[in-house]
Amino acid sequence: MTDTLSWLAEPESIAFGGYSVVLARGLDPAELVARIAAEAVPRCTARPLGPYTGEDLIEEHELDLASGTEDLALRHGQVGDLAYAVAYGYWQGELGIPATVSRGGAEVYHVEYEEENGKPVPPNFSASWDGRPLCSFNLHLDSSWGFDGVDGDPETAAAVTADLAAAGLPDPEREKRDVHRTCLELLGRRFGLALPRAAVLDGELPAVLLEAA
Is 54 in contact with 95 (CB distance < 8 Å)? Predict the structure, then answer.
């Protein structure tokens, strides 16, 4: 059975420091990674490394957030009709995903959480389609970080808002991790999103190192 996105809400679900995952429909994994390298991280190239587990990739290439390095790597794969890319290393503040990554009729979704940011920063979701922003919001639904409803295309924003309301959200009394998990579940159903937990955590996936061009 294919996993939903909800497991990303667990503490250190992928690696220390949080998670950054890009999913795309209408692109294969290689094209998704190429677009991320060229557009989301300007003037970078993607150097293939071969298959790695996440743990081995972090260890061999010293992609430890705590080390202060600015190295950035991606592991990528396919689940159903979705390509996905998972970031490792110092992606915080470095891996924005512009709407142009979805040009040419693709759908691109980005979920990220800077879990160790002391501010703290809430988890965030953004979606784009055919080169244009579709919707975005923070997954703690936290007004202190500017949540004032779902932003984006009015029809899409209204549909997501209705999903949240049906789940009793926003609710300032609910524990933030529960809100985070519920939002991921709703987004998975709304947009048909999934991420295979076993493959990401324990399997070997093709990896690339992003290097300055």
Answer: no
Q: How far is CA 72 from the centre of its chain?
A: 14
| Coil vs helix vs strand at 191 | helix
E strand residue ranges, the chain: 18-25, 44-52, 72-79, 82-89, 107-114, 124-129, 132-138, 151-152, 205-212
Domain boundaries, the chain: 6-212
Output the six-digit token pair for 180.
């985070």
- For 2, 18, 183, the CA distances from 209, given in Å and listed in that order, are 27, 19, 31
Say how far apart CA 90 and CA 73 lie, in whole Å: 9
- By the 10 Å C-beta count (0-12 exposed, 13-18 middle, 19+ buried), 118 is classed as exposed
Reading the block at residue 121, the tokens are 């920063």
The token duo for 100 is 């142009």
Q: Give residue-wise pLDDT tens across range 111-169.
A: 999 988 767 889 999 999 999 999 999 999 987 777 789 999 999 999 999 999 999 99
